[in-house]
Design a protein that fits this description.
Layout lengths: L9 E5 L4 H12 L3 E5 L3 H15 L4 E3 L7 H15 L4 E4 L15 H29 L2 E6 L12 H21 L4 E8 L8 H4 L2 H10 L9 H11 L10 E4 L6
Helix pairs in contact: 1-8, 3-4, 4-5
């Protein structure tokens, strides 16, 4: 466990009331981290925090509601983590938006802006809020949950794919800037995972059958199958890794 030990570390995970974010929070806590559970609504976050505390101890998780479209709410999220534990060691930018399915010709300006703001700008805001203390301490891991959509085109989620490609470049750029201060920035790029966020894709039986047939593992993924990569990237096991994207997609992109 030593390579993956996170005891005493403090991690903020956005979009962690369900799906991939929740799985990441639970696994980080399992490996010793204090975790901040966050999404738009407090009640679901508190439910996750209570479950983690019941399993690992009363001081392992707190719940803080924050809408990623609000810079003020994100600052409050960061401030709450510091007020509780005095530091932030790991940031997982997991929350994202995708309000439109269809060809790019049909997307409205507001929908396109929402995707870019919530999937790119909000990550930039959060990273800017935690990076100064990480650079001063010369230690920290920032993880952006991107998507294999950032590696290829799509006829139905093109704007989302554009935003996820930008997240990969955000990680590369920040790695150059923060690397001299020993702060690492990496991405995880999941394939199709069985989450509420991707429900429109995997509930369509024809689409699901097509995806399964073209996936070497012949199935879509589960949220917990992404969480181990986050534990790796948060811990000293990945101490010499920065600016990279870990693809976890059952082999789809090969």
């Amino acid at each position: 466990m030593e390579l993956f030990e996170l005891k005493g570390q403090v991690a903020i995970i956005t979009g962690s009331s369900r799906g991939i974010g929740r799985a990441i929070a639970e696994r980080l806590a399992e490996h010793g981290a204090h975790v901040v559970i966050s999404s738009r609504k407090l009640a679901p976050c508190q439910e996750v925090a209570d479950a983690i505390n019941a399993r690992y101890g009363d001081d392992r998780a707190i719940a803080v509601a924050a809408n990623i479209s609000s810079k003020a709410e994100l600052q409050n999220l960061v401030d709450a983590a510091r007020a509780q534990w005095g530091r932030i060691d790991v940031l997982v930018c997991n929350a994202a938006s995708n309000p439109y399915y269809g060809p790019m010709a049909g997307i409205s300006d507001d929908q396109f802006r929402k995707i870019l703001d919530n999937n790119i700008i909000s990550n930039h805001w959060l990273i800017s809020m935690v990076a100064p203390e990480m650079t001063a301490r010369r230690s920290g891991s920032i993880i952006i949950v991107s998507s294999i959509g950032g590696l290829r085109g799509s006829p139905i989620i093109g704007a989302y794919c554009i935003s996820k490609a930008a997240d990969m470049q955000l990680a590369r750029n920040l790695s150059v800037e923060l690397g001299p201060h020993q702060v690492r920035v990496n991405c995880i790029a999941p394939g199709l995972i069985k989450t509420d966020f991707a429900r429109a894709l995997w509930e369509d039986q024809a689409l699901l059958a097509e995806r399964n047939a073209s996936t070497p593992l012949r199935r879509i993924g589960e949220p917990d199958e992404i969480a181990g990569a986050a534990v790796f990237l948060a811990s000293s096991a990945s101490a010499f890794m920065t600016g990279q994207t870990l693809v976890i997609d059952g082999g789809v992109t090969i």
